[in-house]
């Protein structure tokens, strides 16, 4: 009844295709494919290909299962945020905590915030502008980039992220890439500086007060 599909299934199997791949291509049931190809002898090359397909399928399946689990945790995080009163006082505490994690707390005369994650940099800049009176002209930004980066492109990229004009960027520091592999998603490391002693001390003190409160 399905001699054409049967012949095609055997040919694909002889080339090293898995049963899952075959039944999707031929568009018949998996049980039919399994029955048709069970006596097909595989060459060494076909066995190697089949093994590679099997390993890849397992990786894909494991990745999908992990993503499903991570999505559940993400939903819990979203639910928590939706039920939390996020006012400016709450955000000032968040800003202080972020700065204590990635900022230069040793110098309370100016803000120095360093990170390579675009979302963290963007969030910190949004918090500064929303919560405090900012003089945009005071921002100065330095980049640490690898030899495979184009300085102009990276300056333009981080200018869009930070909303700081390119003329307020210093000449990037070029770090030689000692690794053979490039990191396609790595856009360099950013150091944001903003001279304002009062603001810097306010942010540092807010984070410090939170730690002290939690420790008491």
Protein architecture, described:
This protein has 216 residues and is α+β, with helices and mostly antiparallel strands. It has two domains: 3-80, no CATH class; 88-215, no CATH class. It is 59% helix and 11% strand. It has helices at 3-14, 19-26, 30-37, 44-82, 88-102, 118-131, 151-162, 197-215, and strands spanning 110-115, 139-146, 173-175, 189-195. Strand 2 (139-146), helix 7 and strand 3 (173-175) form a beta-alpha-beta unit. Helix 2 packs across helix 3 (30-37).
Describe the protein's topology.
Layout: H1 3-14, H2 19-26, H3 30-37, H4 44-82, H5 88-102, E1 110-115, H6 118-131, E2 139-146, H7 151-162, E3 173-175, E4 189-195, H8 197-215
Parallel strand pairs: 2-3
Antiparallel strand pairs: 1-4, 2-4
Helix pairs in contact: 1-2, 1-3, 2-3, 5-6, 5-8
Name a few traits of the molecule.
single chain, 216 residues, alpha+beta, 2 domains, 4-stranded mixed beta sheet, 4 strands
Largest sheet: 4 strands, mixed
Determine the structural class based on helices, strands and strand pairing. alpha+beta
Poorly predicted parts: none
Sheet with the most strands: spatial strand order? 1-4-2-3
Content of β-strand: 5-15%
Task: Give the termini distance in whole angstroms.
Answer: 79 Å
Q: What general outline do the C-alpha atoms trace?
A: elongated
Helix tally? 8
- Give helix and strand order, one letter per element, not per position: HHHHHEHEHEEH
Nearest-angstrom radius of gyration?
28 Å
Tell me, rounded to a whole number, the average pLDDT: 92
Helix content: 55-70%
Total domains, how many?
Answer: 2
Strand element count: 4
